[in-house]
Amino acid sequence: MTGVTQQPTPVQRQIGAWVMHPTAEQLSMARRIGITRIDLMINDHSKDRRPTEFRCNDGVDDDAKMIRDLGFDLHFTSWVMPHQPFVAKACDVLSQLVIDHGAISVMWDAEEPWTQAIGGNTRDAAADIGRRMAGCRMGASGIGYADLHDHDPEVLYLVDVCDYVVPQVYVTSDSGLRHNSMRRVLERWSFDKPILAGLAAYAQTFDGLSTGPNMLRSWEKVRDTDGVCYWAMRHIAKNRDAQTAIEKFAKGDA
Q1: φ, ψ for residue 159, nearest 5 deg
Q2: Taking a C-beta distance cutoff of 8 angstroms, is the pair 13, 226 a contact?
Q3: What's the CA gap between 44 and 55, in Å, rounded?
Q4: Is the per-residue pLDDT at 33 higher than 90?
Q5: Cα–Cα distance between 73 and 196 in angstroms, integer?
Q6: Taking a C-beta distance cutoff of 8 angstroms, is the pair 105, 14 a contact?
Q7: Residue 249 and residue 220 in contact, taking contact as beta carbons nearer than 8 Å
Q8: What are the structural domains of the chain?
Q9: Is the pTM of this model over 0.90?
């Protein structure tokens, strides 16, 4: 990927959040509570399974500039599909965004549009991404319970060409994952690469506990990772208890 310079490895114990179309108010709140990393979602391909054209949201350049101007570490997150035309355009667009805005990394969201795609070849697509994005730091994110080592290697192909991993260990009031299983998920995603734990900032009232204590239970299970990234900024912005919890984590008070 000509023109892209490898960015320094981010510091440990990052606290980040995914956001699409951030507002100045959301980013001000994020800065106040100690979030330093912003993962800008540039599209939504969550419903796509058949070959489709890669999309990028309007306003991404303005969003990225606002994030950088406020002093955050900027990362771009994109859904990924294993079809060659999709991969080619995604890499072209994202490599240019990295150059234009000095982003630290690109994170690929490898959920069902990657693992359940109709057509395409995940092994070949991952190798193509590795070639096209050479020189750019990349992360692979996916649903935590993905069976990476056995009969579902689709995400593993992408992990192989990435620099860090982001398992989504979302424990919520309606998730199948509970706090006592989070460590097993992290073990499945252990590849001698930095781990950024994806945590939920929504639906955190359950087991007779309120938002703050449940977010603390998740935080305690991922203390030895390289940081966390919360889904999502919009949920944090609406919940003062979530903001208070994250602020405590950022200050080392939890």
Answers
A1: -55, -40
A2: yes
A3: 8
A4: yes
A5: 14
A6: no
A7: no
A8: 14-251 (3.20.20.80)
A9: yes
Is 213 within 8 Å of 168 (Cβ atoms)?
no
Tokens of 22: 């951030």
Of all residues in the chain, what percent carry a pLDDT higher than 90? Answer: 90
User: Which residue, chain included where needed, has tokens 């310079």?
Assistant: 5
Tokens at 182, concatenated: 């989070």
Amino acid found at 113: P
Q: Give the sign of the dihedral formed by CA 156, CA 158, CA 160, CA 166.
A: negative
Report the amino acid identity of residue 254.
Answer: A
For residues 104 and 138, is the Cβ–Cβ distance under 8 A? no
Amino acid at 131: R
CA angle 108, 112, 116 (to 5 degrees): 120
C-alpha closest to that of 247 among 15, 2, 29, 34: 34
- CA-nearest of 189, 131, 135 to 159 is 189
| 228/193 Cα distance (integer angstroms) | 15
82: which 2 tokens? 């294993």
